[in-house]
Design goal:
- The longest helix has about 40 residues, at about 55-95.
- Helix content is about 55%, strand content about 20%.
- The protein has a domain at about 1-80.
- By secondary structure, the chain is an alpha+beta fold.
Length: about 140
Amino acid sequence: MSGDLPDYYFRVRENGAVVFRVDTENRQRRIDMEEIATVNINNGKIKPHGDRALSPEEIELIEGWIAERQAVLAARDVDDILRAIDHMNFTTQWAQSKARDDELEAVTDPLLMAMHDLRSVLIRKKADRLMKDEAAE
């Protein structure tokens, strides 16, 4: 089993991870995890644990994890938006076919405000992209 374990483990947390070195080469043949660093995914900072100095290989490994994690989180953001589009479609179908008047009364104003806000942002961003493209040509 110890051959299947990674040399390092990243305990994901809200804004990054705690990095551990995994050790299975000890007399008790148990898994020991030594905390070596904390990582902030938002700003890319790597902070060694205690007085420990990270090796260049460890820093490279952690930086690679940061890049992979940022890609995963970006993909999740896009997936969340695509799910929101699905939910908007489900909401439209619900409003058209199933919703009672009192239910519609409860959700109409907040939905209209959120949709207006989203529409305003999307139009402004699209206009900015179009103007940027025209300026580049």
